[in-house]
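go over this record:
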Amino acid sequence: MLLAGSLAVTVLLFLFGLPFFFVFLFIPLIPFFGRKQRVKRCPECGFKTTGDRVEYCPYDGSRLEVPEGNQ
């Protein structure tokens, strides 16, 4: 089913004259649009990250904090 849908979209884009390979280059960027990044900061050294899985500073081991207004 997924393969048939993918082929159908590819054929439609080809018939409309759109270079469908640009669509596939754009797909990995979709998660970066429409989502606000939450920046965490180390109170000791100032290290900043937007990683959701990072809880502690990799340089000094301090717990990262979320600054006010950035939640």
